[in-house]
Amino acid sequence: MHPSAAKRNGQAVIHLENVHKTYDLGEIQVHALRGVSLEIREGEMVAVMGASGSGKSTLMNILGCLDKPSKGAYLLDGVDVTNMTKTELAKVRNSKIGFVFQQFNLLSRTSALENVELPTVYAGLPPEERHKRAQRALEQVGLAERAHHHPSQLSGGQQQRVAIARALVTEPSILLADEPTGNLDSRTSVEVMDIFQRLNQEHGITVILVTHEHDIANYAKRNLEFRDGKIQRDIAVRDRLMARDILPTMKSVGEEDAEEEAQQEA
Amino acid sequence: MDFWSTFHLALRALARNKMRSSLTMLGIIIGVGAVIATVSIGQGAEYLIQQGIEGMGTNAVFISAGSNRPSGGARQGYWGVKTLTVDDMNAILREVPVIREAAPVVFTRTQVVYQNQNWNTRVEGTTPVYFSIRRWNVSAGTSFSDEEVTAAANVCVIGQTIAKLLFPAQDPVGATIRLREMPFRVIGVLESRGQSATGDDQDDRILAPYTTVQRKLAGITWLHYINASAFSPEAAQNSVPQIEALLLERHRIRNPEDADFFVSTQSEVADIANQTQRVMTMLLGSVASVSLLVGGIGIMNIMLVSVTERTREIGVRMAVGATENDVQQQFLVEAVTLSMMGGTVGIVAGLAGSAMIANLLQWPTLVSPTAILVAALFSAGVGIFFGYYPARKAAQLDPIEALRYE
Predict the structure, then answer these.
(1) According to the model, what pLDDT value does residue A262 have?
(2) Residue A150 needs a FRET pair 20 to 30 A away by CA distance; which of B39, B67, B117, B337 works?
């Protein structure tokens, strides 16, 4: 069981206070974030929504310690990361944050297991420990038997599951997913949401995901809507979708193909 | 991230582009191979010269007749004066204790005739000591004795070249040849010495008692030079001022500038020869190292391409916790691995190349461990130097930009 499960719904994992982000593009200044204050607690599952240019990507970069706020403060797990050096931020990313990308971003010609191991390499773990953890993370996403496949031998959904395993392997405080279903068909999208929900429910992992699809956002517990660099709406999801309940009602890819063939024959 | 993980990573990355990696390495292979081959050829030449010099006797001191002083307006140069005698030699042996032995040498050129064959050669008159000083033995027959010197006997020892020319199908020992219409009995044949350091055929000569050469062939009473030998190379050096002082006194010359002799040692000759050779080796080596430089630029080029190609990978690595240092190290180790592997193959290629040259040209090549070590270190240095910039470039990528890179 994930260690943070014990203190789920406890203190704030993320605390933003009046965060501004300004990009200086020479002549003009772009205000990507204009004063965002936000608190996300242990065990939450939050969907961040908004049109492009609304500031949601900038927020994700700051939450993921890839970028620093121009003004304001960011406390991650109670630690102020606002003024950390690049090397310190790299360590924070390594130990506290798991990234899942729209493009999966797996290393090609590298086995699933080695892809998952990647963060543990930078954590300085010994090889046996790395294997053990990567294997366990792959089990968590149901891909243990594909450990030695290369990304090109895996479907899009499987690749994204490997990416999720990679994000999990260092047992981070938060999982940051940037349009995780953007490149997946609808059934696979729900499968991926199922994994996120299970990790959130069963292991108490805090999940924050960016999406522009409302139905994907409905799998989260809380929705944040961004507009012009500010939080426009912050609501709890009322009729939350549970992927586990929806999956049985969906046709599998194989069934769809069979149906199409049947139609063509008819 | 520990070194082995980084190294393993580098090997994986290089193996992913085998063709490209090996072509990049080729630059270093050629560079290192060329350096190793040229240096070993150069050192082979040095060895040849060393051998030639040792043939003259390692501790040799030469006292040559000759003068810087103008005589009637013309400077006489080597061999031009008539003042160096066997008495001088005996005085040196008596009064300069570091000199172990000495042989007088007088020479002339003359026609040598045997039956219907003839040849023009150098006849050197000396004593039996000459053979031991030059460590030169006879391969057949014997050398002449002190008694034969005293008696000015008409005996001689001939070099291999003469033996081949005058006696193509016959044992020369015991035959009688004619020098200046006088009969000389051949009592021995010298071992072959081949070319000297300066390129003369050392086997093209006849040795005879110096008394015989002085009186019967050259018609002179003086010596051309004295070939002396000291107890050690240092003693040879130390003997020079002593011999100079002694001879100046014996020849009653006040001003050393007016000396009618030159004293030189083998080590001086050796130094000059070695220096010349070393300059040649360095020249060849530096030409070869230009190709090493070009190889290094090849590595830099490929590493820059690789960094650009793998921008996204770098972004992912940074996102999951690679520090700038980790990324820099990764690319640097890749560059150094490339250059070191190239260096290793290059050393093997260089050794093979120099062995081939040794075989084809009959030229001894000498591969020194120093040269190999220097080549190995140099190729590592090339990797570090030319890998640094691309690695730095990779490390300073912005992870957000890198992740967005298409």
Answers:
(1) 56
(2) B337
CA distance A146 to A135: 10
Q: At what angle do helices A112-122 and A127-140 cross, to 10 degrees?
A: 120
Mean pLDDT of A219-223: 95
Residues of chain A positioned with their CB less than 8 A from the CB of B5: 121, 127
Cβ neighbours of B400 in A, within 8 Å: 61, 66-67
CB B27 within 8 A of CB B303: no
Does position A237 have pLDDT exceeding 50, yes or no? yes
Count the neighbouring beta carbons within 10 Å of the beta carbon of residue B247: 21
Q: Determine whether the interchain pair B317/A122 forms a contact, defined as Cβ–Cβ distance below 8 Å.
A: yes
Helix (H) or strand (E) holding A204: none
Whether residues A99 and B320 touch (CB distance < 8 A) is answered with yes
Distance CA B294, CA A71 (A): 49
Using the predicted structure, report yes or no on whether residue B80 has a pLDDT greater than 70.
no
Q: Is A84 on the interface with B (CB under 8 A)?
A: no
Q: Which of B312, B325, B400 sits opposite A105 (nearest CB)?
A: B312
CA neighbor of B381 nearest in space, from B349, B348, B354, B342: B342
A chain contacts of residue B403, beta-carbon cutoff 8 Å: 101, 105
How many helices (H) and strands (E) chain A has is answered by: 9, 10
